[in-house]
Design brief:
This is SET domain-containing protein. Pfam families: SET. The protein is mainly alpha-helical. The protein has 2 domains: about 250 residues, no CATH class; about 290 residues, no CATH class. It has 22 helices and 14 strands. The strands form 6 sheets. It has a 3-stranded antiparallel β-sheet with strand order 2-6-5, with helices on one face. Strands 12-14-13 form a 3-stranded antiparallel β-sheet, sandwiched between helices. Strands 1-9 form a two-stranded antiparallel ribbon. Strand 3 and strand 4 form a beta hairpin. Helix 2 crosses helix 5. The radius of gyration is 27 Å and the shape is globular. The two termini are about 50 Å apart. About 5% of the residues have low confidence.
């Protein structure tokens, strides 16, 4: 089963109108804080230990509560695992016809994967236990009890359908609020690790203005199915969803590449910044299939997949021994990965940002030593470090940017507001911005080779831009003899090297002609920020030994030498005679502001392609830029 384009589709076009779900449910942790109908946050404080449905308005209640009460979900055990799956399946059961001739294959036009999941070691027990709990709840609602001989085939099939087709519904911050099952207009869209489309959710209360919603969008894809392989399935039946849902988390699909008429439309089910082995493992464990897309099957691996796993090894005498270096790289990779994963997990659970920074920077900078066995030349040691594009390095940059930002905030909160403490907090904010910019630059390099990474690039450029503008607007510059008014001459400016600020000034963000010319816009943007970065980069990262090994956050051509060597940094140190360096600081601050603006506006352009001009993310970034300007 698949969906294909019924016409040529340009980059940044809506492929579907907003689609309401067939069935959906909040995760347990959000039942007390979010509306069970539209998934919007409730206006009253969360109710502790509440597991029923709550609503934000009378329309949501009247739309959803009859289905919720009829589904028997209130009779599910409170300790039932993956209860959002069971609630979604119970609600979906209400829409089924009295007879289902292809229960093992299709229900409501959706593939159930019944035979595969009920014979899978990962899912069989979960499906069986969940189906028994659902059947027992339905019996209890009728005042009956479940007998061991009762058939739970229907419950098993519908739960398999949910496991196969449900998608995690995320809010604007990326939190997973719950799950939803959509009709084949979305559910028949297959996965690819190099997709040509992405999707977004529209979560809003009734009568609210929904970001990015255009009810006039047409469905630009048509279903394609092989009856020989899947049996009879009438695609005209796939819109028979749960009648009565007027509200709920809507989904829209949008193109991120040009798609030709008849070409299959694909989205991603997993994190595309993971290497092939991790993507395949995730897809098999969660979806029970092995990806055979072009990115996964090409040999040798693509540049992106090679870089995401690359370990830099140094020691000429070690490599000259004629042994297989890949064996040692694999050993180092496992140990480095384990250490970094433990550190990040500890940071998320314990919340010690200073310890996290020390541990991550220690392994990023020092790497891991592998000692070779005795040879004729004696023992030798191989030093292994993460390639800056390695997926673990990218994850570390993201974590370090967050940890330094938290350290800066905590330092100001718990220290007296002296000049010294403000400068120390400012140093941590600088380094946080440095990691955000390095993460954006590294991801952009990968994005240039694999354009489907655009969704990740959106968030990283947004974070880098916001971090840089926060630095540029900091009051700490006053301590360096530079009041904020010094930015007045550059707050509204035209860039002579690229067209980004002209696009932003036009308010249209990205018209059709500019989308067609997106590659040139992207190339001009990179050239522009690359020319500006040497004028502030060393100031931004001063004091962070690892970041100081990078001469430029956007230029990685030195990686061809396969080693990372810190160079002497001729830096003007912050001291009590800052007034002598006012001109230098002014220049650095001006370029921090300019690059920050460029990063944000470029993020707006990418967000427009992924989510549309009126999407929440696009609007958020635009407001951030305009608030800073005004």
């Amino acid at each position: 089963m698949e969906m294909r384009a019924k016409q040529d589709i340009e980059i940044g076009d809506d492929i579907t109108p907003p689609l309401l779900p067939l069935s959906f449910s909040l995760h347990d942790s959000f039942l007390s804080s979010h509306c069970s109908s539209c998934f919007s946050p409730l206006s009253f404080p969360p109710l502790p230990h509440h597991y029923g449905s709550l609503y934000c308005s009378a329309p949501c209640s009247s739309s959803h509560s009859p289905i919720s009460s009829s589904s028997a979900e209130s009779f599910l055990p409170l300790t039932c695992p993956r209860s959002s799956d069971l609630r979604t399946a119970l609600r979906l059961l209400l829409s089924l016809p009295s007879t289902c001739p292809h229960l093992h294959r299709f229900t409501n036009g959706l593939l159930t994967n019944y035979l595969k999941l009920t014979s899978s070691p990962e899912f069989a027990a979960q499906i069986r236990q969940g189906a028994i709990a659902m059947a027992a709840a339905r019996k209890l609602r009728k005042g009956l009890s479940l007998d061991q001989s009762d058939d739970v085939l229907l419950e098993e099939a519908v739960l398999c359908l949910v496991v196969t087709n449900a998608v995690e519904v995320q809010d604007e911050s990326g939190r997973s609020l719950g799950i939803a099952v959509y009709d084949p207009s979305f559910s028949w869209i297959n996965h690819s690790c190099s997709p040509n489309a992405c999707y977004r959710f529209i979560v809003s209360p009734p009568n609210a203005t929904s970001f990015g919603e255009d009810s006039g969008s047409a469905l630009l894809i048509v279903p394609s199915v092989s009856e020989e392989n899947f049996g009879v399935c009438s695609c005209s039946e796939y819109n028979k969803g749960t009648e009565g849902y007027k509200y709920g988390p809507k989904i829209m699909v949008r193109s991120i590449k040009r798609i030709k008429k008849g070409e299959e439309v694909c989205v991603s089910y997993t994190d595309l910044l993971q290497p092939k082995a991790m993507r395949q493992s995730y897809l098999w464990f969660n979806h029970q299939f092995t990806c055979s897309c072009s990115r996964c099957t090409v040999f040798p691996s693509t540049f992106v997949d090679h870089a995401l796993e690359e370990i830099l090894a140094s020691n000429p005498s070690f490599s000259s021994a004629g042994l297989d270096l890949n064996l040692y790289r694999d050993e180092a990779n496992k140990k480095l990965s384990h250490y970094v994963d433990e550190t990040i997990t500890e940071f998320l659970l314990v919340g010690d940002p200073e310890s996290c920074c020390k541990k991550l920077e220690s392994v990023l900078e020092g790497g891991f030593h592998v000692e070779q066995l005795e040879s004729e030349d004696g023992k030798s040691r191989l030093n292994c470090k993460f390639h800056p594009f390695n997926h673990i390095a990218l994850n570390s940059y993201m974590t370090l940017a967050s940890a330094y930002r938290i350290r800066s905030s905590d330092f100001l909160a718990f220290q007296s507001k002296t000049d010294e403490s403000q400068l120390k907090a400012f140093e941590m904010s600088r380094i946080s911005a440095g990691y955000s910019l390095l993460l954006a630059g590294a991801t952009h390099d990968l994005f240039c080779s694999e354009s489907s990474l655009i969704v990740s690039a959106v968030n990283f450029w947004k974070q880098a831009g916001e971090s840089l503008l926060t630095i540029a607007g900091s009051s700490v510059w006053n301590l360096l003899g530079l009041p904020k008014s010094e930015l007045s001459t550059v707050v509204k400016y035209k860039c002579s090297e690229c067209s980004l600020m002209d696009i932003f000034g036009a308010k249209s963000i990205l018209n059709q002609a500019e989308r067609t010319n997106f590659e040139n816009i992207s190339s001009d943007f990179l050239a522009c920020v690359r020319s500006a970065s040497p004028k502030f980069w060393r100031f931004l990262i001063h004091g962070c030994h690892y970041l100081e090994t990078f001469k430029d956050p956007f230029d990685f051509r030195w990686l061809a030498h396969a080693h990372c060597v810190a160079e002497d940094v001729d830096f003007i140190k912050e001291d009590s005679n800052c007034e002598h360096h006012a001109e230098w600081y002014t220049n650095a601050r001006t370029h921090i502001y300019k690059v920050g603006m460029h990063c944000l506006v470029y993020g707006v352009i990418l967000a427009h392609i992924c989510y549309g001009q009126n999407s929440h993310l696009t609007t958020h970034v635009l407001n951030h830029v305009e608030n800073f300007v005004h």
